[in-house]
């Protein structure tokens, strides 16, 4: 038993194409320890989203080993994978993915309904707690289109946190925000990291990687640590 939230060993993934197999992930090794905040940088098409889908249990690798919270995910049924996903993973997306005709509080209740460990009597308190954490306790009755982009992403982060996951997987979390709101979201993620949350961010943006304690680069499906001087160069 170790304190890795994620352990990947020798992971490979190809997609079939008319012209033959297209290898997208090649021999990926990665360990993410509890409480780490990590960025994966890479150009478009380098394989970042494919890796994130596998880490988030939305897709499976062809070969290699993936342990999430010390559990080997390779032999699990679809139902077991969905249970594991709900229990351990919070997602933050570039486009926020809030449900437009639900209020903030209703959006935050959605993941709770899939979580049998949380008693419905606790929903209101949970919702208030995560909204307070992201600084939006006074917006619970607002609809998403009544909020700024930065506020919508805060709600999305609150939603990702509401089931108290072991890791936040963030897919370009600042990609749809102006630089001021992007900085605020990175500051919020930094605060969550200080409080002990484990966070993985995939991004094109070097300034996002600079907010993380460790960064990797993805290039043609290969993952390697980003050296200090590379933080300052464009990917
Ligand atoms: N479902 C799929 N079927 C076939 N090929 C795919 C599929 N998904 C991704 N690919 C291919 O895998 C490669 C990597 O794609 P991926 O989306 O992982 O890259 P990315 O680094 O996330 O890019 P971006 O930053 O533009 O989102 C691309 O060449 C893409 O065409």
Instruction: Give the helix/strand class.
Output: alpha/beta
List the uncertain runs.
none
Task: Provide the number of structural domains.
Answer: 1
Proper CATH architecture: 3-Layer(aba) Sandwich
Strand content: 25-35%
**Shape category:** globular
Q: By CATH's scheme, which homologous superfamily applies?
A: P-loop containing nucleotide triphosphate hydrolases
Question: Short summary of the structure?
Answer:
By secondary structure, this protein is an alpha/beta fold. The protein contains seven helices and ten strands.
Provide keyphrases for this structure.
single chain, 235 residues, alpha/beta, Rossmann fold, six-stranded mixed β-sheet, four-stranded antiparallel β-sheet, 7 helices, binds adenosine-5'-triphosphate, nucleotide-binding, ATP binding
What report would you give on this structure?
The structure is a single chain. This protein has a single domain (about 5-230), classed as 3-Layer(aba) Sandwich (Rossmann fold), CATH 3.40.50.300. The mean pLDDT is about 90. The strands form two sheets. The protein has a six-stranded mixed beta sheet, sandwiched between helices. A four-stranded antiparallel beta sheet has the order 2-1-4-5, with helices on one face. Helix 4 packs across helix 5 (about 150-160) and helix 5 packs parallel to helix 6 (about 180-195). The longest helix has 16 residues, at about 180-195. It contains seven helices and ten strands. It is about 30% helix and about 30% strand. It binds adenosine-5'-triphosphate (ATP). Adenosine-5'-triphosphate binds near residues 15, 46 and 50.
């Amino acid at each position: 038993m170790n304190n890795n939230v994620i352990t990947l060993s020798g992971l490979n993934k190809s997609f079939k194409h008319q012209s033959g197999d297209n290898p997208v992930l090649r021999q990926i090794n990665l360990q993410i320890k509890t409480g780490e905040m990590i960025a994966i940088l890479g150009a478009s098409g380098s394989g970042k989203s494919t890796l994130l889908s596998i880490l988030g249990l939305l897709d499976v690798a062809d070969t290699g080993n993936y342990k999430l919270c010390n559990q080997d995910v390779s032999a699990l049924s679809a139902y077991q994978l969905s249970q594991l996903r709900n229990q351990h993973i919070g997602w933050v997306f570039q486009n926020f993915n809030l449900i437009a005709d639900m209020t903030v509080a209703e959006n935050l209740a959605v993941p709770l309904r899939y979580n049998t460990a949380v008693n419905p009597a606790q929903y209101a308190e949970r919702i208030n707690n995560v909204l307070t954490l992201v600084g939006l306790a006074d917006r619970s009755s607002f609809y998403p289109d009544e909020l700024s982009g930065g506020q919508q992403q805060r709600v999305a982060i609150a939603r990702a946190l509401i089931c108290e996951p072991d890791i936040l997987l963030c897919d370009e979390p600042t990609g749809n925000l102006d630089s001021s709101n992007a900085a605020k979201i990175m500051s919020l993620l930094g605060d969550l990291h200080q409080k002990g949350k484990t966070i993985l961010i995939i991004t094109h943006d070097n300034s996002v990687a600079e907010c993380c304690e460790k960064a990797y680069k993805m290039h043609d499906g290969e993952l390697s640590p980003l050296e200090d001087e590379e933080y300052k160069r464009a990917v």
